[in-house]
Amino acid sequence: CGEVTREERVGLARAASCRAKSTYEDHDKPAQICFSNMSTAKAVADAIRTSLGPKGMDKMIQDGKGDVAIPK
């Protein structure tokens, strides 16, 4: 797919989630879904990358209900 920046991946993931209710009749749709899934996975990996390793930092995650979790 070529080199895509983190901001582009996050933007594409958000745009894909907004289009989730569209039909799957388009022949390019499976490729778009695959690209969207890969972009989303890369965005999540970028977000948690600093929590891995011996000098990893904890992440504070807040869900939609306002509950906060700090995974180890």
TrEMBL record:
Gene3D superfamilies: GroEL-like equatorial domain. InterPro entries: Chaperonin_TCP-1_CS (IPR002194), GROEL-like_equatorial_sf (IPR027413). One of its GO terms (molecular function) is ATP binding. Belongs to the TCP-1 chaperonin family. This is Uncharacterized protein. It comes from the Eukaryota. GO terms for biological process: protein folding. One of its GO terms (cellular component) is chaperonin-containing T-complex. It comes from Equus asinus.
